[in-house]
Amino acid sequence: MRIHDILEQKVAKQPVAPALTDSLGFDWCYEILGHVVDELAQKLVDLGVKPTDRVLLVMENCAPAVATLLAVSKVGAVLIPFNARQTDKDLQRVIDHATPAAVLFTVSVSKEAKVHAEWAGAQDMCLAGLNGALFATSRATDPVEELSDVGAILYTTGTTGVPKGVMLTHDNLIFGGRVSCDVRKITAEDVLYGVLPMSHVFGLASVVVAALLGGASIRIEPRFAPANLYNALLKGVTLLSSVPQMLAQLMHYTREQGHEHLPIDSLRYVSSGAAPLDIDWKSKAEAFFGQPLQNGYGMTEASAGVCVTRHMGSNDDISVGQPFPGVQLKLDVQAPGGGGEVGEILIAGGGVMKGYFRNQEATAAAFTPDGWLRSGDLGRLDAQGNLHIMGRSKELIIHGGFNVYPPEVEAALNEHPQVIQCAVVGVTRDGDEKVCAFVEASPNDWPNEEDLHAYAQTQLTGYKRPWRIVVMEKLPAAATGKILKKDLPALIKE
To answer: Which Enzyme Commission number(s) are listed (predicted)?
Structure first.
């Protein structure tokens, strides 16, 4: 099965069921989505796109982006979703490496995509009903047999050198979508909130493909804004996949509207991923939503889904739960940063990538000799078999010879009532790594840094206490809402 086959099944089974709505005003049932996909697929063929060709989509979330994913599948080509908010230089690197047959731009929903389209000399695709939402440029390319079963290539964001393109097969993407669909029990009655970037595996597999498999509809937003999410929840969204930073801002916005709890009862499932939780914050979130907050763990190279909790009620479990059906994991306690019960998380199962496109050396390094995917993340397993994420192996801070795991320090500071969210990194000073915390707070409730240091002394062992605490109105974040820790050290003032 390929991704577009899912749509064709839904068109036959539930043609008038709602499929997609977005900020551009598109409101499509499954039958209309099917017609758009057919027309777009023919347009791609007219542009010269052939099976195994790469189609690069410079995008932000919108209905035409979902249609492009399905049309590319129908042609037998491979989609490369690219976040429009990245630079021309980043885009050129991907173009040089992937050699796409066509580059499409979601110009109507993204000023950045429009700028990229002008830079690339793209033209309106002139598709009936899409109102100039997509521009394209094309060129000749050669087929690549290696990609015959690949549905998408997702490029990781590197700071130097050639970017790595994660090859996810149709089976990988459908596996990732299926486990998400099944654990959330998605049906045609559900409305998913689609603000997680579809250029990222979380939004692509765990939202788009999962919704298609369940026959649900997606309310699509190009960018996160707490007010938009708040209003969408009031209008009937039933499933919310998020990152903790999104939920923290939603809770803060809701309090500003005069509510301590979310004033709705239609939302039936809330999940968090991409960053660790702490018990105090989790308890506040569960009281806010009036239901358990499910926590999950995944990565691009594993098609998003690795583990998830399955709580029936509120509790003090801040793990990421146990593996999805069809996923296996184990710990390599000999990995850098390991020791004792902490080790690198190794993964096997139906979501594990085919490899990195045109990069055999990186592919070989990503797997153990016996075929397990190396995650680069540190974790431990508790007595119940639940996985606890201790951080990235590269983010481990070694201060005074002691291992400091950033999530522990973040969890402690997040309990302070004036802290919205926190991020901790290590900075090298005088031959040692120092613990540095960056705290997001409201201008209307600005904490005193000395008070935060005093609070940390009551919560943390000496070597884990921050050397510096920087209070900010907003932490730098990626399109997913995930904090960009690599940008934080430069903000320290000596």
So the answer is: 6.2.1.3
